[in-house]
Every structure is written in C-alpha cells, then in structure tokens.
Amino acid sequence: MSEPVLIRGGIVFDGTGSRRADIGVSNGIIVDPADAPTSAKVIDATECVVSTGLVDLHAHLGEPGDEAAETMATAGRAAVLGGFTTVLAMPNTLPPVDSAAVVEHVRVLAEAALCNVEPAGTITVGGQGKHLAPLGELAAVGVRFVSDCGPGVQDPLLLRRALEYAKPFDLTIAQPANCEALSVGAQMHEGEWSSRLGLTGSPAEAEEIMVMRDISLARLTGVRVHFQTLSTASSFAMVGAAQRSGVRVSAEVASHHLLLSDADVADYDTNKKVEPPFRPAADVDAARSAVGDQLVDCVVSDHTPHTTDRKERPFDHAEVGSIGLETALAVALSADIAIEDVLRAMSWRPAELLGVGGPAVRNLTVGSIADITVIDPKEKFTVSNSLQQSAGTNGAFEGSTLRGTVRATLVGGDLVVDEGIVTK
Amino acid sequence: MKHLLSIDELTVDDVREILRITPSFAEVAQRRIAKVPALRGQTVALLFYEDSTRTRLSFEVAAKRLSADTLNVSVSTSSVNKGESLRDTAETIEAMGIDAVVVRHRSSGVPWQLTKWVDAAVINAGDGWHQHPTQALLDCYTLQQQLGDLSGSHIVMVGDIKHSRVARSDVSALTMLGAEVTLVAPPTLLPPAIDTWPVHTSTDIDASLASADAVYLLRMQSERQNEALIPDLREYTTLYGLTASRAASLSSTVPIMHPGPMNRGVEIAADVPNLGQVVVVDQVRNGVAVRMAVLFKLLGSGAADLPILTPHPSAVAAAV
Q1: Which of A204, B20, B230, B304 is the 20 to 30 A CA-CA neighbour of B145?
Q2: What's the whole-model pTM score?
C-alpha cells in the first residue's frame, strides 16, 4: 500500500467550494488530517491550490499501434506531471477501439500508466463512418464515451442512428465538428493569415455548420451530443443557446485554443498545425470567455504525440496535432482564466461527464478516493522538450513561458509526482 | 539582410537599394566576357523541388556571372512523396559547406523551415502559393524601365490570384513603391480575406484596362476547372482573357507582362504576345541582373559602390 501523506497549508478547491485546510491520505483514501499517521510524508502546500485530480476527456496516448510516438508509460508520466489523474484515451488507435476485445487490450496496456486510463470507443466500425460499431458490446465492458475522431461522423443519418441506438446504454456520443467537404486540403484557419501565407484554409463555417447540424440531431433524438474541441465564437454561442433552450449538448475546448491564434502560424512551425486550426484572436477571446461563462464544459489537452520526422516536413505534408498533457493546465492559467473556472473545466465537470467514481472524485472529503493535484498557480516555467515526460516531440508551446506548475499528484493515494518530479 | 524569403520582410529602402544597384549588374551582361569575380570561391546550391527551367537557369546564370560555383540539386518528387525529411536534405547540403541555397518548393513556407536548419543564406525562388520575391523585384525593375517612378501608377493584374505566389509578392512590392494595384479575377480565384490586402478588386476587366498603366497576366491552369473554381477555360478567356480586341483597346505605351510560361489562347490570345508592348523578354533578361544584385547583397563584401565589379582577370587577360 502507498505511504501515508499529509498535505499541509494549501487552499483546498473541490466541487463544494474552497477552504483553507490540510488533507490527510492513508490507504488510498482521504482521512482527517488529525488521523494521519505520524509517519506520513508531509507535502508543503503553502501558496498552493489543492484540487481534486484533473480529468482529461481528450488525449491520444499512442498505444496500441503508435508506440514510436508514445506509450502508455510515457503518456502516463506526462499526464500526472500535468496534474491529470484520469485520462480518456481516444480510440483512433491501431487497431481502433471498436470491440470489447480491443477495449480489454487497452486496459491491459494502460496498467503501465501512472494515471487512470478510461478507454473511449469508436461510433462506427474502424472509425470509418460507414457502419455502427457494436455500441452495446462496448458499453457492456465499461466504455462511457464513443467518438470517431478525425473530422467526426459526416453522414447525418448515421449519426442520428448512433444517437438513437445508444439511448439505452448511457453512452456519450462525442463528435469533433468539421465538415470534411468544406475543409478539404486545409492546413490552417481560412482568413487573413492563410491568405497571406499561401496555405489552404478551413473556414470557421466548416466547424459551425456541423455544430448547427448536430445540435439539431440532439434535439431530434433527445440524446446528448458532446462536442469535441470547439474553436470558434459562433460555435460557443450556438452551444450556449442550445443549452438554454434545453437541448442536451456539452462541449470542450482544447487548451491550446485559449492562447494561440492563426497569426502564430506565421513562422510555419508545423507543431502549430492542429485540428481544429488556430483561429483569429477574437475566437481565442471567445474561447476564454466560454470557459468562464460555462458555454463549454471542459478544457482538454487534445494531446497528440508524433515522432520528429512527421513534423519536420513541409507544412502541408506535416501531421496534425500537438502534445498537451504537460502544458494544458498551465496554458489555461496563463490565459488568465480564474482558478475555480479552470478547475471546474479540468476536474469536476469532466469527472461528472465521464461518470467515474461517482461524486467521490469531485470532492476532497474524508472517505473519498485520494486523486489529488497540488498546484502552484503563480510559478512560471519555460516549456522545453528536454524536460518533458511525453515521448512526443511536437509541442506548440516549445520555448514559451507559462504560469502554473504541478507540485504534487496523487493517484489513488499514490504520490506519483512530488516537488514537480515524477517519483516512479 | 541574411536571407531573401519574402518581399514582406524587406523595407522599402531594401527594395529601392536592390533596384538601384541592378543596372551595374545588367551592364556586366553587356560585356564581351560577361563575368566578374565578385563571388569567386563561393558556392550557391540550387535546390529545386519543383521543375522550373527558367527560374533555375536565371539563378544559375546570375551566380556564374558573379564567378560563384553552382550546385544543382534536383530533388525528385518521389522522395518528397516518400516523406523524406526536409531537415535531412537541408543538413546534407549544409554539410557540403555551401554559402547560399536557392530553393523552390511546391509547399508554402519551406524556405522559412530551411533557415532553422542551415547557416547558409536562403533565397526563396518560389514557395507554394506564397512568395517569389525575385520575381517581384524583376517585375518592379521592368516596370520602372517602362514607366519611370511607379508612385501613383495603376497596375492591373489579371488571373488566378488565389494560387499565385507572383501575385502575393508583386502586390507587396508594387504597393511598397507607391503603385495602385487592381486585381481582376473571378471571385473564386481571389484569396480569402482579400479586403485585408492593399488593393482594389474587380470582375470587370474592360473597365480596369481602361485606366491601366500596365497589365500583368497570370498563368491560368486547367486544373482549376476540376475544382469548381471556373466552369471552363473558354468562359474564363471570354470574361478575363486578354483577347485581341482588348489588347487593341490598350494604348501602345501600356506594357503587357507575364511571369511565363504563357498559355496562349487562354489568358492571352495567341497573337498578343507578338505586340511591341509585350515586355516578357525584358522580364527574363532583367531577372538575371536582379538575381545577381540579390546574390551580391547577400554574399558580397557589402562594399557600398560595387568596386568589386571590375572585369574578371580572365577577361583582362583575353583583352591583352
């Protein structure tokens, strides 16, 4: 069993609010600090925020199939260093997660990760958008989220059927919003910068048309659609309006969309080629407000590791995506989003949407599972490939100075990050 | 100035300076032995990922007239498609100890990426739809020969602006020198956010030609029909081509330009290139002189008044 821990002097933030308190951990469970054994390891949390563990609803972890870019072991180290105690693993792996057998395989692989890994499944067989995957079989082995990743399900009838069919299984249908036909060949956002840089752009409307469509399908079927990594002001506004009118939708934004804009692509840094693409500054502002105003539920890492050679190519041949597990929290804090909004969007709300552990993971009360992140929200650091835990080398923030570090992470009471260093 | 990547990275003084020194280099070409020792001992690599006989030859002649050694690296399209790392190619060239890389690539941005991996001067000879700065400089030089100071002159550019690096570079350079630019194209062939460009736009070629001081035609590629950007080439020619009658409506003092190669019968009627006001050959000739000026600016000793342009020793020997 893990050694007992006493977290002393911090401000505790959880689903119930904030308070100055010490937290004791013994046998993987939160205990009254007075009951912590005298042998407990003391973590000095002065000036720090003590939060329920962060939950990432969107990360690509490499395994199975892309071990050259990332493994469960390296991704898990990156996750806990970034403060995440639970990560939803995206299913567009090799093989794709479209059967119970692959789900079980992912669970076995995930034993190498220091954080909890929840496998997501695909909506359609192979994520190919043609035939429904066995959603009942996936749900039966504990899958809670399904997504086809990539541009998402394009065929509206197929998505309607998926929403209807999933009803009895308590599955969340998650959709990236990207109309493939309108964004063919796109390398970045279509606008002033794509015009200047001579790169094919994808207009904001390629995303917004799908948001509009899928809100309609959520209304038609009465089944919730979870929008993955939205990025435009109109998308956030439409989701907000749908929520107010009672349509069941939820949404996430990738942390990098809170800080970078299309102008940042001007140096042709292929690590800034992401999907959806970086948008104009007005959309970045809208994304920040959307987190505070709860138009979006979650901030996610959209961690997408690649080997160096896949990015050291001409911009239009480079792969899409940036790593993000180790920077997501700091990026959100550096975007000047209030700490309670950041924690709601990165811990309590995604935990609720994922449904793991019931209310336990959302509160740091005695008897809860000790998934805990200790954050110094003011400390600055410079992002460097050489210091990171992820095997992926493609970080959009390489060389940037960000604010907000993780001092300690406990997963099930196990102190896996101490003084900002992975202990295992 | 370490590299020449984009007109947008130059100041108006940089542009004027290159145009100012270009005649000295043009003069070298007139000599019996058209060669000066300005860049003797330096090596210029011509890294062409995309076929372009005229631009490659122009740079090669320019480098040779300055006595630089040239190294032709033609990279097959297949190795690019196989995903050969740009960095590997760059580092291979770097290891050979070259002084400048002239790069042409079908992907926008490649010259910027190269600067991260090589110490040599990088000269952009055309990247995707993005920039072709020496083309813009030679076009400005040619226009100045024809019109004098470009300030206030009206340049009408017609064709596929969206996919054109020539348009992007020329618009920057021409407006920098004070010219008014009108882009004439079907709306599908204009870049997005065109309102952020310092230009006028029009879909009426006849109205635009009426006030033009110079006409610049861009190459129209037949692929654009397949992308639903235009219905067909015939309609394009009718609406946007420089037909014989449109050419006849122009004053004979209005120069007609084209970056080449021309599609006769599409953007320009078959016999129009034979008119006296067509300056396409001047563009090619000036291209060598402008590229000599650029190579000299980047690799030369930086001497202010070009004393280095004395005749090559072999020329002196030959004269004796």
Answers
A1: B304
A2: 0.93
